[in-house]
Amino acid sequence: MRSFRLVPDNTQIDFMRYEYLGYAISGLLILLTFILVPLKGLNFGIDFQGGLLIEVRTPGPAADLASMRSTLNGLGLGEVALQTFGEPSDVLIRIQRQEGGEQAQQAAVNKVKQALGDKVNYRRVEFVGPKVSSELFWAGAQAVGWSFLAILAYIWFRFEWQYGIGAILAVIHDTITTVGIFSIFSLEFNLASIAAILTIVGYSLNDTVVIFDRVRENLRRYKTMPIAELLDRSINETLARTVMTSLTTLLALLALVIFGGEVIRGFTIAMIWGVVVGTYSTIYIATPVLVHFNLRRTIEPAAAVQTP
């Protein structure tokens, strides 16, 4: 039985031929992000702006989120986000910080209670102030920064420092451009967005390590092959795996965008962009950077194979 292949065997695409075009495209994307974010800003969610957190338990086996969202959106309280947790009847309501002091926040709580009625059990009511939201933002930023350092240490330990530089440049590129996507489309930027960025970093790193591992093997095998040609060979040899992984991930994310609802829409859109840009940066950022470093070839005369 003939098997189906998205990528034919023995592909010979000349990726390194377009390395400087890749650098130009990436530079343009990063420049646009640096221009748009200060001008347009980010649509910070309640986690980073501050606001009200109300934990409720609704009657019945499961909460009707659509009805609750429609009711609360009609109160004129600004951004309202709902999500279930724990039991299907447990709902966490997030409402943006109201203009005014403590009295304004309490008035908003009273509106919510009047709208939802007495049948709802209010288990927790908290106000996230500007100080707490600022701490959450910087904690998220530090999590991203520490992940970069961990990646550099891991790649340096497993491979060499040249590979570490390439991997870090790729994930920085992915992170910056993902933030740009949040700004361009005014997607809500909250703690889930930080989780999306960290997930994108992990996805990009996984793809990068696969290609780097093949590069290291080919450095031992082809002693006289020019480095650019060797990198092209390594990418082509792992291209089928890269394409299949990216497509299957995108199919799952597209289903979440269509059927997942508004709560996770920003997260899934960011993840879709992350899969695309993570695959691109592995091929046109992380790998081409190795051309500009003096990679050491392991001296193993018995295993040496001349360039075919």
**Which range best describes the helical content: under 10%, 10-25%, 25-40%, 40-55%, 55-70% or over 70%?**
55-70%
Q: Count helical runs.
A: 9
Q: How many runs of DSSP E, i.e. beta strands?
A: 6
Structural class: alpha+beta
Q: Average pLDDT value?
A: 80
Largest sheet: 4 strands, antiparallel
Q: Strand order within the widest sheet?
A: 3-4-2-5
- The outline comes out as elongated
Q: Which spans of ≥5 residues are poorly predicted at pLDDT below 50?
A: 299-308
User: How much is the radius of gyration in Å?
Assistant: 24 Å
The ordered string of helix (H) and strand (E) elements is HEHEHEEHEHHEHHH
The rounded distance between the terminal residues' Cα atoms is 32 Å
Percent range for β-strand residues: 5-15%
Kindly summarize this structure in a few lines.
It contains nine helices and six strands, in the order H-E-H-E-H-E-E-H-E-H-H-E-H-H-H. The longest helix has 33 residues, at 227-259.
